[in-house]
């Protein structure tokens, strides 16, 4: 493991008005898993886009197997043996899983026609190697975000690469899927493949990487043997300061029930789901992919038609047949895919924050601008958003700030219940702490929060109570004091435990 597979030296990159990278060093050895960490905006993705041929460097040198190279495009990068699993999913929704995996590389018969049988067999084998129970004939548009993430991984690993770059590969995965991926990474490592592993889940850095390189504000901080670092030391290197108390959740006396769910069912997805949410409570819902945990939130929000069940708000039965009706009843949804479902990326911060209440600000085009600006300015101030101005485009913001905009949007509706699916997915460690503090503050104000999360530390650290689901049913419920990782994982695997 002492052969330099890839070396980047003195890398610099500038965009209009922004110096993204300055004199950055990075090296990967053959058969090494090398972590790349830093806060949002540190330059990790820019550095990997240069290595993947998406951006061209302004300064520095790249060597592969000791030879200088100019990586001109993503296609050129692939021919050089570089493969990337992007943080943003890069699949064609209208095509099948197999077609996406072999897009542009479909196996063909002697006459030039696509060999569909061979394609499905090979795709099925790849998915089986990853332990993914997905039919390769299924259309990608029918998959959950987590399932799409696994297909993206299978697609990348279908190419024989010498250097694999994984950008947040477990963002949508549960512990079980993550462990399967780790086994696959170790298999790649054993074959001499170099792996660059980018993640905000710092516990994964210590589980899977040999060395870790830290970037901060576009500059190189250092490269360290992972075994010689502690979590606190790594965080300090990333942010330049110590983060006090990652999970700021405090014990709070439960309020009166605000939301009650009785025997909710969606055929083929989940069945007999019942629970109550109290004012000021953070109720965590855990479960593996396919457990139905996220779909429960979508059904409550009116985005998935119910086949049975009753929803009660403040003791009164309500009929919710659409998101508009949910919003009218004071329910908001922070989706697990903020860029596709939670935000309009081409709009400004102001436009996104006021989107759910635009009709309340005036008829047609006659919006009361003074009132709108006051609302937006207050939201930016209260949530401490790092924006240049309310007119800044959403797509230019960091993941953490984008997530704050999603929450701010629902606060304008005076939401009493907030359904939060993967609330800290794809945001850095500092932004996570800020999001947790915001959730605690909302709970203090009496907002009831349902938090669906695949991150075990988040579930254990932020929930007052925890519900666990398996294959569409609730298998356990734990108060905060009695919940452990072992109990939750056993329940998520299908072992029914007595509800408290």
Could you explain how this protein is built, in words?
By secondary structure, the chain is of the alpha/beta class. The chain has 2 domains: 236 residues, Rossmann fold, CATH 3.40.50.300; 236 residues, Rossmann fold (3-Layer(aba) Sandwich), CATH 3.40.50. Helices cover 32% and strands 25% of the residues. It is built from 17 helices and 20 strands. The strands form 4 sheets. The protein has a 6-stranded mixed beta sheet with strand order 6-7-8-3-9-10, sandwiched between helices. A hairpin with a 2-residue loop joins strand 9 and strand 10. Helix 14 packs parallel to helix 15. The radius of gyration is 23 Å and the shape is globular. The model has no long low-confidence stretch (mean pLDDT 88).
Short note summarizing the structure:
This protein is an alpha/beta fold and 500 residues long. 32% of the residues lie in helices and 25% in strands. The protein has two domains: 236 residues, 3-Layer(aba) Sandwich (Rossmann fold), CATH 3.40.50.300; 236 residues, 3-Layer(aba) Sandwich (Rossmann fold), CATH 3.40.50.
């Amino acid at each position: 493991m002492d052969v330099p597979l890839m070396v980047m030296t003195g890398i610099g990159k500038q965009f209009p008005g922004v110096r993204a990278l300055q004199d950055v060093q990075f090296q990967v050895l053959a058969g090494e898993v090398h972590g790349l960490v830093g806060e949002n905006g540190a330059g990790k993705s820019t550095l990997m886009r240069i290595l993947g041929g998406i951006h061209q460097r302004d300064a520095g040198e790249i060597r592969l197997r000791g030879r200088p190279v100019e990586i001109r495009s993503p296609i050129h990068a692939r021919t050089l043996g570089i493969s990337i699993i992007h943080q943003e999913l890069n699949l064609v929704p209208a095509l099948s899983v197999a077609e996406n995996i072999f897009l542009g590389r479909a196996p063909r018969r002697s006459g030039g026609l696509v060999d569909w049988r061979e394609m499905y067999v090979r795709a099925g084998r790849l998915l089986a190697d990853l332990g993914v129970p997905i039919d390769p004939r299924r259309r990608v548009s029918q998959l959950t975000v987590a399932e799409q993430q696994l297909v993206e991984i299978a697609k990348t690993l279908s190419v024989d690469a010498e250097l694999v770059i994984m950008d947040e590969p477990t963002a949508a995965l549960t512990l079980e899927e993550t462990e399967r991926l780790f086994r696959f990474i170790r298999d790649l490592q054993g074959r001499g493949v170099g792996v660059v592993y980018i993640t905000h889940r710092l516990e994964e850095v210590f589980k899977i990487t040999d060395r870790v390189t830290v970037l901060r504000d576009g500059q190189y901080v250092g490269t360290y043997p992972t075994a010689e670092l502690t979590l606190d030391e790594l965080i300090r290197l990333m942010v330049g300061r110590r983060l006090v108390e990652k999970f700021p959740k405090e014990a709070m006396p439960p309020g009166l029930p605000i939301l009650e769910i009785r025997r909710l069912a969606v055929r083929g997805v989940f069945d007999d789901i019942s629970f109550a949410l109290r004012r000021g409570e953070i109720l965590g819902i855990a479960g593996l992919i396919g457990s139905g945990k996220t779909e429960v939130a979508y059904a409550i929000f009116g985005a998935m038609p119910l086949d049975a069940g009753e929803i009660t708000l403040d003791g009164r039965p309500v009929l919710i047949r659409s998101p508009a009706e949910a919003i009218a009843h004071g329910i908001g949804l922070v989706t697990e895919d903020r860029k596709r479902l939670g935000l309009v990326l081409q709009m400004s911060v102001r436009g996104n924050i006021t989107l759910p209440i635009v009709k309340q600000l005036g008829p047609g085009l006659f919006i009361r601008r003074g009132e709108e600006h006051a609302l937006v300015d207050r939201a930016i101030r209260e949530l401490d958003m790092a924006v240049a101005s309310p007119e800044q485009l959403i797509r230019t913001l960091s993941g953490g700030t984008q997530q704050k905009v999603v929450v701010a949007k629902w606060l304008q509706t005076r939401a009493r219940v907030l359904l939060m699916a993967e609330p800290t997915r794809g945001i850095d460690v500092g932004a996570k702490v800020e999001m947790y503090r915001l959730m605690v503050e909302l709970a203090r104000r009496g907002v009831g929060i349902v938090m669906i999360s695949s991150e075990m530390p988040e579930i254990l650290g932020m929930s007052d109570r925890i519900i666990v689901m398996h294959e569409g049913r609730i298998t356990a419920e734990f108060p905060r004091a009695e919940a452990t990782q072992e109990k939750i994982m056993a329940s998520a695997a299908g072992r029914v435990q007595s509800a408290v």
